[in-house]
Amino acid sequence: MHETLAGLLNRPLSIGGRPVANRLWLSPMAGLGHVAYRQVLDHFGSCGLAFTEMCAARALPTENRRVSTVFRWRDEELDRLVCQIAGPGPQELVPAARRVEAEGFFGVDINMGCSVSGIIKKGAGAALLRDHDAALAAAEAVREAVSIPVFVKFRTGWSPDVAPAVALARRFESAGVDCLVFHPRVAPDKRTRPPVRDHIRAVAEAVSIPVFGNGDVVTPGDCLDMLTATGCDGVSVGRMAIAKPWLFAEWTGGTAPGENAFMEYALRLADALDEHFDPIRALKRFKLFTVYFAANFTFGHSLQSRFLAAKSMDDVRAAARSLLVPGLRLNSRPNMNMHSI
Question: Average per-residue pLDDT in the chain?
Fold first, then answer.
């Protein structure tokens, strides 16, 4: 299975005329896909494209990368990093996209999938899926404003019928969008129901631009099934990439993690957080990460509670060295119930 999966993920691919290393990408994740995590991800390697956390389009034109907690990056990752922006329409999205292009990012991604109430109230994220003309206007304006690849991350919509999503995908392609990342759940669903993978197939078959599938890809078998059952062009991985950042190297090249991979991961992340954030933010971000990390282990809740009790990053490091020893019992499939917390 691993050879078949690696063969599919390593097929040549270009987005907007620009080559991409492979077809296994990191999803944008608020509070998790920050510069410190991506630095650790780069250590393990083989992520085809990474996406930033969601950035508010209104703030982006004047955002200071040295101060911002989300619009922050390392120069060496820019040629394989896409910046995700969220806003209600062209007036906010266009200046943000121009800033993204000026900074040298690989591409810009328009968020049309986030259904957090604060984003919806502003008319951004999945709210754009309520008015397809508005969604199309946003995509067209961004496409006209920049020359870098334009991505759209979107969901099935506000009803379980996939037909509107298929029609919108075709309109995005006509507008010049270079790639679609599709999450096959209705907008209000907070992972209470499984994603409908047949919807990925419907969208992928409707357009000629690349379509990446997203949603509940936990194991190599899940990834292979998504590729073969839906015909999508690649896979975008979210929560599992936080649980196991070496999955990119493992699934694309068969590189197995070392015996001390979990301890190494926790310690590297602690160091990277200290490098990029102040002590309070660093500790907060480490604690956000623990629910996904702990889901790997049979006694994950107990392990997580030990990390959550940390009062400093030094406490975090001490806990990692004492707790994350070889031989810990691992779940054959990470506990996704923890992930839904």
Answer: 94
